[in-house]
Fold this sequence. Notes:
The chain is α+β, with helices and mostly antiparallel strands. It has 9 helices and 9 strands.
Amino acid sequence: MKEHVKILIDTRKAKGLDLSEVSRKTGIRQTVLESIESGELPELPVVYLRSFIKKYATFLGLSNESYSGLLTELDSRLAKEQLLHKPLTNESASIIDPSDRNVMTILKSQNYKELISDKRLVSSIMYLGLGLVLISIIYFVFFSSDSKPESSIVDNIEIGDEIKESQDEESLLNYFETSDSLVLEAFALDTSWMSVTIDGKKNEEILLKPGAKKVWKAAKFFTITAGNAGGVQLKRNGEKLEPLGARGNVVNNVKITKDEVSK
């Protein structure tokens, strides 16, 4: 790995730059830059690391071909580690490059075969499902009956329906006046890591797999950081937003309000 990062080190030194200056101008933390140049890569998703390396190389004015060996070595090392030592899990899948479809296909097929071949696991799931069904039937047969007179039941149902309809109408009218008046939906087109901060207070980090969907609610705004900006489609209050960036690119601190998206 060290021979592949040598071009980054040599180019930076030739330009008379130190890592603190590179960090300040690229927005990449100095500790991450130090780890990349040492060949000891930090524990980050591959899409994040690739984006950092591309951003660093572009800042130094390097062509894609000049550091392609570094990206290839990064992908092959992580893919080989997964294939030889670890089954596919949500956590381990997060460090595989989502653009490498062959690796993802092999990993998934191996895990599915192992699950299917474990007959005890399949049997346990089947018995658990049957048990839940039986418990539900017993509950509804013996515990859901009401001893109240029929007229009282009807009156209660009618009153309950009226209250429910009134509450539904009030809820609909006040939807955009409540504290959660801003709704953000994320649909993953590719494996995408996101950090979402709600109204500057509550923060959530999530790794979305292709086809996954997540919804957040806020009173005023969201702040978004995405490790694969083009890998996720966002909607604000049902309105589709423009992509935050290209696939594989990192975007930081994008603010989304009811009226605008500021990067």
